[in-house]
């Protein structure tokens, strides 16, 4: 019998949306109520590293995240395992000499180098790395867009972490989710001057999970359908154009408006959901001041389901943006200076 342990490793990056996904039309398949668009961050700072192994000698599917065993019985994990196994089984039935990996239990070992579930898109990198690692283990021929269909079922935003650079998640119209996929808008090399500063206001776990928050918003917010059906479709087109033209002012304008509107529909949810705190609001004011002083938009803030800020800017403005952020937030409690380093595209500040 085949008692070999087969392994493959990979890393997947975090992505931060500039047009936000918020709302599901199908909670089982993670089909969204609107398309979204993100920038993938450098793997040097924020990434998940995952090793996938399988062997006939393993007893059951196991997932270890940051050294702790996780429950894999959940529908999201199960959907990813099932879909990947069925793609592998198709290869095995076409070629009988292949080892029957699809029948072996899986062992997945994952490490994040940043706080988990603190609104830093950990589930995005996590599920993208899980899908990519198993796809590598199974030697699947599927491309990143095809794999994004599977990663999406783990966590919606994960589908965008299968690409670097600028990535859209097209909501699709099919009820089976076959056209709800990630596409590359532009590679990172198209606009290499783009940088991001992450202001870690709190590394605590978020209060309201994105899944329950989204469902509450869809069920109760009256502003929500305007956002999903009218505003976002127009913004998606404008954002793609801005990225194509490397037009930072339009990129920044749309990014900040979309973050604000996402938090507005959270506030319009019953009961209201508050992800931003006083430090987040101070960061917003600091960015507004930077842009006012520059006479144009040179910095753009965005916030996910937590208080931490991600601030996009172009390399040429690094001193102006990071210097002013440090100065502008000096008196604010709960804030620590960002540190800039030359060779990475993210600056982090952990408190
Ligand atoms: O994929 P989830 O369930 O982690 O939801 C992500 C939601 C936001 O981060 C707030 C927005 C986005 O598009 O990433």
UniProtKB/TrEMBL annotation:
It comes from the Eukaryota. Keywords: ATP-binding, Lipid biosynthesis, Lipid metabolism, Lyase, Nucleotide-binding, Steroid biosynthesis, Steroid metabolism, Sterol biosynthesis, Sterol metabolism. GO terms for biological process: isopentenyl diphosphate biosynthetic process, mevalonate pathway; sterol biosynthetic process. Its EC number is 4.1.1.33. The keyword Hydrolase does not apply. GO terms for molecular function: ATP binding; diphosphomevalonate decarboxylase activity. Residues 12-182 form the Diphosphomevalonate decarboxylase-like N-terminal domain. Signal peptide: none annotated. Residues 197-351 form the Mvd1 C-terminal domain. GO terms for cellular component: cytosol. Pfam families: MDD_C, MVD-like_N. InterPro entries: GHMP_kinase_C_sf (IPR036554), Mev_decarb (IPR005935), Mev_diP_decarb (IPR029765), MVD-like_N (IPR053859), Mvd1_C (IPR041431), Ribosomal_Su5_D2-typ_SF (IPR020568), Ribsml_uS5_D2-typ_fold_subgr (IPR014721). The keyword tRNA processing does not apply. Pathway: Isoprenoid biosynthesis; isopentenyl diphosphate biosynthesis via mevalonate pathway; isopentenyl diphosphate from (R)-mevalonate: step 3/3. It catalyses: (R)-5-diphosphomevalonate + ATP = isopentenyl diphosphate + ADP + phosphate + CO2. Belongs to the diphosphomevalonate decarboxylase family. This is Diphosphomevalonate decarboxylase.
């Amino acid at each position: 019998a085949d008692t070999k342990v087969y392994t493959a490793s990979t890393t997947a990056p975090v992505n931060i949306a500039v047009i936000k996904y918020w709302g599901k039309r199908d909670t089982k398949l993670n089909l969204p109520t609107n398309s979204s668009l993100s920038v993938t961050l450098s793997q040097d700072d924020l990434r998940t590293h995952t090793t996938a192994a399988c062997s006939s000698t393993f007893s059951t599917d196991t997932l270890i995240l940051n050294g702790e065993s996780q429950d894999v019985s959940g529908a999201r994990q199960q959907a990813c395992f099932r879909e990947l196994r069925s793609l592998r089984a198709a290869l095995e039935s076409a070629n009988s000499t292949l080892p029957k990996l699809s029948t072996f239990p899986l062992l997945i070992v994952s490490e994040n180098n940043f706080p988990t579930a603190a609104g830093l898109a950990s589930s995005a990198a996590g599920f993208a790395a899980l899908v990519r690692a198993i796809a590598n283990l199974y030697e699947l021929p599927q491309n990143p867009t095809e794999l994004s269909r599977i990663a999406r079922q783990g966590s919606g935003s994960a589908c965008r972490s299968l690409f670097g650079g600028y990535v859209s998640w097209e909501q699709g119209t099919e009820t089976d989710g076959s056209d709800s996929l990630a596409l590359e808008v532009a590679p990172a090399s198209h606009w290499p001057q783009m940088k991001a500063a992450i202001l870690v206001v709190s590394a605590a776990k978020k209060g309201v999970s994105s899944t329950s928050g989204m469902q509450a918003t869809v069920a109760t917010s009256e502003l929500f359908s305007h956002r999903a059906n009218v505003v976002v479709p127009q913004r998606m087109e404008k954002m793609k154009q801005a990225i194509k033209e490397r037009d930072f002012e339009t990129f920044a304008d749309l990014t900040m408006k979309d973050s604000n509107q996402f938090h507005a529909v959270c506030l319009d949810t019953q009961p209201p959901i508050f992800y931003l705190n006083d430090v987040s609001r101070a960061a917003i004011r600091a960015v507004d001041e930077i842009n006012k002083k520059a006479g144009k938009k040179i910095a753009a803030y965005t916030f996910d389901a937590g208080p931490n800020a991600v601030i996009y800017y172009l390399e040429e403005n690094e001193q102006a943006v990071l210097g002013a952020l440090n100065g502008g937030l000096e008196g604010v409690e709960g804030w620590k200076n960002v540190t800039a380093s030359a060779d990475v595209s993210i600056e982090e500040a952990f408190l």
